[in-house]
Design a protein that fits this description.
two-stranded antiparallel sheet, about 75% helix, mainly alpha, 2 strands, 3 helices
């Protein structure tokens, strides 16, 4: 759980820090990919679910490789 929390913060920051033509990568994904396909409110939900899925996948890969962060 600790690693998932850390990854969520890192990924969220990276999606806002990486810019293309002066726009954050997260907003570009939302506006150009998710919003046209799903509409306004469902696109926001899909964006959140994709983030959770990405973090879950990364933590799963680390768990399979027996990499565990403990305090």
């Amino acid at each position: 759980p600790l690693l998932a929390y850390l990854l969520s913060g890192i990924i969220a920051k990276l999606l806002y820090l990486i810019t293309v033509d002066g726009r954050a990568l997260s907003s570009l994904i939302y506006i150009n990919v998710l919003q046209p396909v799903f509409g306004n409110k469902p696109a926001s939900l899909v964006q959140a679910l994709l983030m959770v899925g990405l973090i879950y996948f990364l933590v799963w890969v680390l768990y399979r490789r027996k990499i565990v962060v403990k305090l």
